[in-house]
Design brief:
The chain is mainly β. Helix content is 3%, strand content 46%. It has 1 helix and 21 strands. A hairpin with a 6-residue loop joins strand 17 and strand 18. The longest helix is centred in the N-terminal third of the chain and has 8 residues, at 81-88.
Length: 272
């Protein structure tokens, strides 16, 4: 009996979401404030075909359900008129200098057309040592948005919820997932990346890596799959390329790092 090796990818976080319009001159909108995305498969339920004779079931055939696509629910915490316009239509007015002036939702009582788009979601692939630098890119085709309710509450930031209907054409896959090695060009990462093989407990953050141990010395490989620059910790958590200057941390983090860059963090074993 053949043994099948599974491809297993632990995924975490909504790293970013893209809305890519489907038109002659497509436009891609990228945002990273969404922290949760729900999906619900929409089915056309088949009816069972039953043969009864004098209240006795003679035969029964169960019909298969047919998938029509998915409904996506995205939570967002900022007001973005461009995304509102894609989701529900309406008009954006700008000042003479091009800055935003106001957004007018679609008029009541009138029909209006919405743009079709693809929804693209990036999630981080995680290994034993943290983020691997890879991402799962999931694409839902043939999407259209629904009306967006606005939510306001004292003491809390504005938030809203986008509901997207993805209805693929006949013969089209309802979604596709691809493992990629980088985010779209032009996206400004908001945290560093941890390479597989990094010490347990290390956590990637905004220009820093936390979760380390006071009194330990660490070797840090910058871009291990590219230039593989080797650095070492100093006491204050910054890095040096001079191995002789390495020192034990007085805190629990490494600082002064570059978001979007991959780091492999390894403990330097002391020699006695």
């Amino acid at each position: 009996m053949a043994v099948q090796i599974l491809n297993q990818y632990p995924l975490t976080d909504v790293v970013l979401v893209q809305i890519e319009t489907v038109e002659q001159n497509p436009v891609t909108y990228t945002f990273d404030t969404s922290d949760e995305i729900g999906t619900e498969e929409i089915l056309s339920e088949g009816e069972e075909l039953t043969l009864k004779i004098k209240k006795k079931i003679i035969a029964n055939r169960a019909a298969e359900d047919t998938s029509l696509g998915y409904d996506l629910t995205l939570k967002d915490n900022v007001f973005c008129p461009e995304i509102l316009q894609i989701m529900q239509g309406g008009t954006i007015e700008n000042e003479d200098d091009g800055s935003f002036k106001r957004y007018l939702a679609p008029e009541v009582g009138k029909t209006f057309s919405k743009k079709s788009f693809r929804t693209i979601i990036y999630s981080a692939v995680v290994g034993p040592g943290g983020d691997t630098g890879q991402f799962a890119k999931t694409i839902f085709p043939n999407c259209k948005g629904k009306s967006v309710p606005l939510n306001f509450k004292d003491g809390e930031y504005y938030s809203n919820e986008y509901v997207i209907n993805s209805r693929p054409n006949t013969g089209q896959s309802p979604y596709e997932v691809e493992i990629v090695n980088e985010l779209p060009s032009g996206y400004e990462a908001t945290k560093v990346l941890l390479s597989s093989g990094s010490v347990a407990g290390a956590i990637a953050g905004n220009e820093e890596i936390t979760g380390l141990t006071i009194g330990d010395i660490y070797k840090v490989t910058v871009d291990p799959s590219v230039t593989a620059t080797i650095k070492y910790t100093l006491a204050d958590g910054t890095l040096t390329t001079v191995e002789a200057d390495k020192a034990a941390l007085t805190g629990t983090k490494i600082t002064g790092l570059t978001n979007g860059t991959t780091y492999k963090v390894e403990k330097v074993e002391s020699s006695i």
